[in-house]
Amino acid sequence: MTRTFVLSLLIVTLAVPVSAQTQSTPPASTQTTPAQPDYPIIRVGVLSYLQYAAETENRDGANSFDVTRAYLNINAQVASRVRFRFTPDIRRITDSSLAGSLVVRVKYAFGQLDTLGQAGSWARFGLHQTPWLDFEESINRYRVQGTMFAEREGLIPGSGDFGASYFTPLPHGFGEVHGGVFNGEGFTQPEANKYKSVQGRLTVRPFPNRGIAHGLRVSGFFNKGWYAADRPRDLGIVMGSFEHRHLVATLQYLNATETPSATTPVEMDRDGWSAFVEPKQGPSGWAGLVRYDSFESDESIPDSTQQRVIAGGGYWFVWPRSKVGLVVTNEHVNYDLPTRLDENRILLQMHFEF
Asked: Does 165 map to a domain?
């Protein structure tokens, strides 16, 4: 019995310090400080359009294979709120001693500061997207078929320009605002004088997060600029758009006042409208395409109106970080002016993006 008592006392004596140590020693922390990204983070991508075009009216049956766009997109996140993009563009030129050659030129080169105010806002400086065309192309994914309405009629000189701009979403998902100051000559030309172009876009989503009505937006764009003193370059656009998994549609009207010629400084009023409809299976799969443009190049000249009809369809493969589109369209252009010959062409095109 004595042995049993001594053994029990020894066990209790050894257990008490261990128990006290267990209760008094806090557990080791399992939380770790998140590792900071190893800046810069660089991503490289490609956007390219391949084409076969066959003229079927008033062009002697001309047909050709071509590359109409080839971008190498280099995006760098330099710090948590600082980004940079550099995009060389490959295109075919038709002037100078390199006529007909594919040449490389800079399309975008800009710095970006994120979250200056509202979450999702940014400011850009350098050669970057102006407020309208990049936005319209985000709705109409058929840039592979040809340029958007305002650019195709020469009212906006390309989707990029040298300048500074600011973008911010509106609170509660009601839309966005993008405005800035640019040279006004587009990314293909240097600034010719001291006159600049002030551009702005307001997009309103009347029914955010309201089911199918969420896809409805109304957008307005203005450009106040000058070719030179007393030679305006003004443009206004109003567009309604609807986006749904199985349907995309836009309807826009534009009006421009311009004096492009220095030798014959006559003010020209131009206007037109465009409609676009795309019924589709979804982001991937089969899709149809119908677009109608009507444009009057000079209201003071009779028979200066032209109509463009684009109809066709395609098949799209869409993955999280890449996209391939196979598009077939017929494009017909009718000119009211008797001296201009109508046009008709068949286009087989491929859109590659990754």
From this structure: yes
- SS3 (DSSP) at 8: helix
Question: Which DSSP letter does residue 24 get?
Answer: H
Q: Is residue 23 part of a domain?
A: no
The rounded Cα 71 to chain-centroid distance in angstroms is 13
pTM confidence score: 0.87
Strand partners, 73: 45
Sign of the torsion formed by the C-alpha atoms of 83, 89, 95 and 101: positive
Answer whether 162's CB lies under 8 Å from 182's CB. Answer: yes
CATH code for the domain of 197: 2.40.160.10
Tell me if 53 sits within 8 A of 345, measured CB to CB: yes
Q: What is the pLDDT of residues 63-108, one digit of tens each?
A: 999 999 999 999 999 999 999 999 998 877 776 666 678 888 899 9
Q: Is residue 122 assigned to a domain?
A: yes
Identity at 131, one-letter amino acid code: P
Q: Is 13 helix (H, G, I), strand (E, B) or coil?
A: helix
Give the C-alpha separation, 163 to 157, whole Å: 14
Q: How many domains does the chain have?
A: 1
**Do 325 and 313 meet the contact criterion of CB atoms below 8 Å apart?**
no
Q: For 289-300, how does the pLDDT look when each residue is reduced to its tens digit (9 = 90+)?
A: 999 999 999 998
DSSP SS3 for 230: coil
Query: CB within 8 A of 227, min separation 6: which ones?
Result: 192, 195, 233, 258, 259, 260, 262
